[in-house]
User: What shape does this take?
Amino acid sequence: MIVRSVVVLPLPLRPTTHTVSPAPTSSETPRRISLASIARALALDPELLLLDEPFEGLSPAIIPALAESLAAITRLGMSLVIAESNIHHVPAWTRRLYVIERGEVIFAGTPDDARRDTAVLRVIGGKAS
Assistant: This one.
């Protein structure tokens, strides 16, 4: 497959000092900015979307909605690469997971396989079975 375009989004973007008063709550600001950034990227019609920590700083109540929005994007045929440091934020629909420790890939497989691997769990902070 030849990729026409790639969009890299460092998410969530932090609000600038030029916030509008009254300022939105801390859980609303990153979500609005993140979704707006994703919408702008989608307007470019990329085949691959790279997201850096898209769930960071979001209220736990908002994370499932964002994950479902991202799943809907993949159902439209777009590929996503998500860099995420919290295994609990990795969406259930993730097909492939890579765990990188000190610059080295120490695991490549499905999220379910990673959750059963005690060595991987020690690195990602999950409970080893």
